[in-house]
Amino acid sequence: MNVVNGAIASSPPEGRELAFKIILIGEPSVGKTAFVHRYVNDSFPRHYKVTVGVDYALRVVRRPGHQRIKLQLWDIAGQERFTPLTRVYYKGTHGCIIMFDLTKRSTYLRCIQWKNDLDAKCSLPDGSPIPCLLIGNKCDLSDKQVTDLELETMCQENSFIGWTETSVKESVMVEESMEFLTDAMLAKDRIFNASSEANPLEDLDSSIVNLPRGSRQITRKSSCSC
Predict the structure, then answer these.
(1) Integer angstrom CA distances of residue 212 from 73, 77, 109, 154, 171
(2) What three-state secondary structure class fits 189?
(3) Could you report the per-residue pLDDT of 173-226, keeping only the tens digit for each?
(4) 58 has which bridge partners?
(5) End-to-end distance of the chain based on CA atoms, in angstroms?
(6) 118 phi and psi, to 5 degrees?
(7) Are 173 and 211 in contact (CB under 8 A)?
(8) Best exposed site among 31, 94, 101, 206 by fewest CB in 10 Å?
(9) Rounded distance, CA 147 to CA 180, Å?
(10) Which of 221, 206, 222, 217 is nearest to 148 (CA)?
(11) What percent of the chain shows pLDDT beyond 70?
(12) How far apart are CA 13 and CA 9, in angstroms?
């Protein structure tokens, strides 16, 4: 994949630059590769190409009040589920997106298996789960097969930090999703560096970002609208 540097030209405070590894997992053909292309290159691939093993791309961003942040996105092939290789791919992960196709219920049901596999193979230094966002892609299509209540229940019962619906094709909620996940990783990083026992989600922006076309919202988990 092409690399896009979206950084704002400025020196990071105290010369410190963060780097976060984010993995994208889920069943084949749900839009993981397209998500990465849209976020990194602002483009949508018109022809489907199966990911073999893992692919990755880099984008450098800045969040308000923070230094430059390198986001390395690892697009892991859906066929790799539960193979020994996933443990290698997951190593050093700071954040995760588990994606499914809103029009294919079977891809949603398998998200629990993906989350269990992730939690079994890696965790943060304090033993807590990797911040993980649940994304239902293809909200531009009308034949949605998953209810909002089901998404909220899965989010609560499986320690997701939140959920939202996206349309990678129409560029809906891609940037917002990544900003939300980045904020969650930053909150964790601040706590580890400060050796604090505070709730890592307390520092997240509590404002709600509305999803266009009457779809759902994304906010912090405590309000359970995510």
Answers:
(1) 25, 29, 25, 23, 11
(2) helix
(3) 999 999 999 999 999 888 777 644 444 344 444 333 333 433 445 544 333 233
(4) 72
(5) 30
(6) -60, -50
(7) yes
(8) 206
(9) 22
(10) 217
(11) 72
(12) 13
- Pull the structure tokens for residue 86: 């996933």
Structure tokens belonging to residue 194: 């400060």
Gyration radius of the chain's alpha carbons = 16
Residues 160 and 134: beta-carbon distance below 8 Å: yes
Spatial distance between the Cα atoms of 179 and 131, rounded to a whole number of angstroms = 13
- Dist CA 118 CA 115 (whole Å): 5
> Whose CA is closest to 97, among 126, 142, 136?
136
CA distance 129 to 127: 7
Strand intervals (E) in the chain: 18-25, 54-62, 68-76, 95-101, 132-137, 162-166, 209-210, 217-218
Residues forming beta bridges with residue 99, ordered by sequence position: 135
Distances (CA, A) of 155 to 17, 57, 64, 152, 220: 31, 27, 27, 5, 11
- Residue 96 in tokens: 């995760």
Nearest to 220 by CA among 109, 144, 133: 133
The position carrying tokens 């089901």 is 150
Mean pLDDT taken over the chain: 78
SS3 68: strand
Q: Position of tokens 């691939």? A: 45
